[in-house]
């Protein structure tokens, strides 16, 4: 296999404009740089046929998961990002497909949150509202503007026996941080393999048999040009995709 086909989820519905998938630019570049063929996925049921042609799935960041999906009302509407029930429907089906087909899967930010909910977990709907003002630090800013730069103080401790530790070759790493929600209850389908000092869950991996099913709360696609750890994560993902049985 020369260039594994990696599907990347989005919020863009077929038949709407624009179709340039601008929101996926960083993910597309990261997959391309790692040797994959990025396949931008429209957010609609017709793409379910495309899932069967993929060698890997990247569940991208974006809007909040509808709290109704994990049995809660929207408690903080003033803090919530947009909810897209249509995106939840497509991505939840894609994640379920990835498990059944043993499709290598990397879930980033919202993607990790979506995977947690698919398997029965819950989310903190808004970290500062539910856990305290100090948790606003997870939405990192520089000069008053949101930033995807690596934040040295945002240190993630890695479970030493995890696949993630094997990939990154470190017990701890500094990452960027751009999220106001986080995992709360984690289902048995996952184990927590990365946490911040304040206890916020930053990485999970599957406990079920699977060649590669990993979720990270940060955005490695934004730092592949400057960060060897980010490149290693995408390289491991693409290596798993190359070994997917035909």
Q: How would you describe this protein?
A:
The chain is an alpha/beta fold and 246 residues long. It has one domain (5-242): Rossmann fold. It is 26% helix and 21% strand. The protein is built from 7 helices and 13 strands. The protein has helices spanning 25-33, 48-51, 85-100, 110-118, 127-131, 163-168, 228-242; strands at residues 5-8, 37-40, 56-59, 105-108, 123-124, 141-142, 145-146, 151-158, 172-175, 182-183, 190-195, 201-206, 213-216. The chain has a 9-stranded mixed sheet, with helices on both faces. Helix 1 links the parallel strand 1 and strand 2. Helix 3 (85-100) crosses helix 4. It is globular. The protein starts with a strand and ends with a helix. The mean pLDDT is 93.
Could you name the key traits of this structure?
246 residues, alpha/beta, Rossmann fold, 9-stranded mixed β-sheet, two-stranded antiparallel ribbon, 7 helices, 26% helix, 21% strand
